[in-house]
Amino acid sequence: MPKDYFEKLSDHKSPPTYKFFNGEKWVNSVSDKTIDVISPLDDHVVGKIQSVTHAEIDQAVSLAKVAQKEWMKVPMIKRTQILHLAADWIREHEHYLTTLLIKEIGKTHTEAKDEILRSADMTDYFAHEGLHLTGEELSGEAFPGYDQTKIAIVERVPLGVVLAIAPFNYPVNLSVSKIAPALITGNAVVFKPPTQGAICSLLLTEIFRIAGVPDGVIVTITGSGNDVGDYLTTHPGIDMVTFTGSSQVGKSIAEKIGMIPILFECGGNNPALVLPDADFDNTAMEIVKGAFSYSGQRCTAVKYVLGLTPTIEKLLPLVVKKTKEMIKMGDPRVGENNLGPVISDGAANEIEKRIILAKAAGAKIVLGGKKDGRFIEPTILDHVTLAMDIIHTETFGPVVGFIRVKSIDDAIELINQSSYGLQASIFTKDEGAGIKLGQLIDVGTVQINSKPQRGPDNFPFLGIKGSGTGVQGIRYTLEAMTRFKPIVLNKPQ
Ligand code: G3P
């Protein structure tokens, strides 16, 4: 089993130090520097990861470049078999990965297990869809002035070496959502895991390697985002960058990258618009799940709710009641607790600061609002405005604000003023009205009568404005990691 190999890779100390994968073997970095992966649950050091040097990155990227040329010649059916085996290994390691995930990023057992199983299903789906990804054949006769002597054979070819940068909140799933499509389409992958979640990511690399991914086709570079991340995103050997993370980092990377394709999912800061005729029970439950799952550390989390005053007056007490019923703050390893700590002290302090500032600016704390270490109470604010930092920029924590509007048109205008555009939810019993309003809202995806969410993973998933660029989702990511290669046959007249 890959985990048996993986466990041999550490130095068996406590806490274990893990190697990085340079494409051929697992090695310690010559930097002799490591980074602690600290559990948000109790500060224990889950493990230490390598701080890889620029020279080691250069070597690994060069290896990936060479290996990719051979990998793209491996028949698609063989690549598919490797991915299906990797999917099975992920399932086999579900318990091991779930346990690691809980320690590294503080998810509940259910959230962690769902992420692992979803990753296996996603890998299978990418393998299946990859088999059916085709090019096309075109005849010149369709265009005036041309005839059948011109035939275009339009192949779909890999981009080359794909840099995959994954976030801490889905270190397995949002790594697989990049690595699997890149591999099945014949690319090589330079994988940069998040620090928290890195150990799961290293095991994922071992799973793909043992499933049959040849040397050099996947390399896994660990290190700090500022150092290693910056060096990788501007590396001349990279042919495409796929990134999930904050809008701020996404914009900074996009500004540095040259003329290569990018596929970015960034911050969401998602609104929920509630119409007077909504099913308030369902709406309240969806807002609670949307705002507080994984302590609000999801880019599809609900961050503010808009409605006419009578709507908000009726909905707010229901959301408070359901929050008290559904959300139990505490160590996610214990009992029914389902609201764990946020990822770091820095994150917790920033959220606390924003709550204090919002209150000073006129917001009313209806529920929660207090910080205890890295734990932030499920917090509901009333009378917030888009001018308040807690709403104006994405607050990656368990906080949701309520805004009263004079008209639904005003609500649409407020939503469209946002610098974000990932998703928006509309709650109404009149689905036709919901669709019409959805067509007026400038976001990637509109959910009607549900919280914002990325799944199901075969649906297109995209952000506009500061929320990203490019379209993800099984088929869409496969297409984004390939390009057309037209070969035109010019037959004799
Ligand atoms: O924050 C990452 C984003 O992809 C959320 O995914 O599945 O929780 O909606 P999901």
What are the salient characteristics of this protein?
single chain, 493 residues, alpha/beta, Aldehyde Dehydrogenase, Chain A, domain 1, Aldehyde Dehydrogenase, Chain A, domain 2, 2 domains, seven-stranded mixed beta sheet, six-stranded mixed beta sheet, 24 strands, binds SN-glycerol-3-phosphate
What can you tell me about this protein's structure?
With about 500 residues, this protein is of the alpha/beta class. The chain folds into two domains: about 5-265 and about 470-485, Aldehyde Dehydrogenase, Chain A, domain 1, CATH 3.40.605; about 270-460, Aldehyde Dehydrogenase, Chain A, domain 2. The chain is about 40% helix and about 20% strand. The chain is built from 16 helices and 24 strands. The strands form seven sheets. A seven-stranded mixed β-sheet has the order 14-17-18-13-12-19-20, with helices on both faces. The protein has a six-stranded mixed β-sheet with strand order 9-8-7-10-11-22, with helices on both faces. It has a three-stranded antiparallel β-sheet with strand order 5-6-24. Helix 1 packs across helix 7 and helix 3 (about 75-90) runs antiparallel to helix 5. The radius of gyration is 24 Å and the shape is globular. It starts with a helix and ends with a strand. The model has no long low-confidence stretch (mean pLDDT about 95). The structure holds SN-glycerol-3-phosphate. SN-glycerol-3-phosphate binds next to loops.
